[in-house]
Amino acid sequence: MNKAELVEVVARTAGLSKVASEKAVDGALDAIKGALRKGQSVTLVGFGTFRVGRRAARVGRNPQTGAEIRIKAARVPKFSAGKALKDELN
User: Fold this and answer.
1) 40, 75 in Cβ contact below 8 A?
2) Which residues lie across from 48 on neighbouring strands?
3) What's the whole-model pTM score?
4) pLDDT for the residue numbered 89
5) Rounded to an integer, what distance in angstroms lies between the CA atom of residue 11 and that of residue 14?
6) Where are the domains positioned within the chain?
7) Stretch 39-52: mean pLDDT, rounded?
8) What is the mean pLDDT of residues 29-48?
9) CB-based contacts of 18, cutoff 8 Å, min separation 6
10) What average pLDDT does the chain have?
11) In terms of CATH architecture, what is 41-90?
12) Residue 42's pLDDT band (boundaries 50, 70, 90)?
């Protein structure tokens, strides 16, 4: 499912226009991104938790030349599925 399909499903299930549905989906995604940018986690009970993880600096290799390269430390988004979501899939 891509974003356009998600917007369509939200519009159909919530009884909204596609324009209003797209604004709602964009608003929710922006809120999640904003919280993660601040280092906060976002928990949707029954669905899961979005949080910020840390990836340490490390040495990698350029696959074409084999030369070592330094990869900087980074903050990365992580998602942990909630129990209800896991149960839904099994």
Assistant:
1) no
2) 44, 81
3) 0.81
4) 93
5) 5
6) 1-39, 41-90
7) 96
8) 96
9) 7, 8, 11
10) 96
11) Irregular (4.10)
12) very high
Look at residue 78 and give its three-state secondary structure: strand
Sort residue 15 into left (φ over 0), alpha (ψ -120 to 50) or beta. left
The pair phi, psi for residue 25, each rounded to 5°, is -65, -45
Contacts 24+ apart (CB under 8 A), 72-78: 76/52, 77/36, 77/50, 77/51, 77/52, 77/53, 78/50, 78/51, 78/52, 78/53
Instruction: Kindly write down the DSSP assignment for every residue of 22-49, as one continuous string.
Output: HHHHHHHHHHHHHHHHTT--EEETTTEE
Contacts of 20 by beta carbon, 8 Å cutoff, 6+ apart: 11
Residue 72: pLDDT band (50, 70, 90) is very high
Which is it for the CA torsion 80, 20, 22, 12, positive or negative?
Answer: positive
